[in-house]
Amino acid sequence: MALEAPGCTGALNIGTGTETTVVEIANRLARCAGAQPRFSHGPAKPGEQRRSSVDPKAAKHALGWAPEVPLDAGLARTAEAFKQAR
Fold first, then answer.
1. Is residue 8 situated within a structural domain?
2. Owning domain of residue 32
3. Which of 21, 54, 65, 83 has the CB geometry, 3.0–4.6 Å to 13, for a possible disulfide?
């Protein structure tokens, strides 16, 4: 998409715009896979990024792109694709 967008240069963030922790994503993927693992989360190490959220506004402006698939549905599709690829 970016290759075909006139005047689009640089990196674009593609995401939901909603902050989601790595542990939340891991738990959601585990549910999609029918697993019940136990995740442990320790304190952040010095200099480690503690929070992250992707803002898709630049992608919307440059490409007309906006997220259409809810995160849980996208994770379920991804988990299913990996199951089918086995």
1. no
2. 17-37+55-86
3. 54
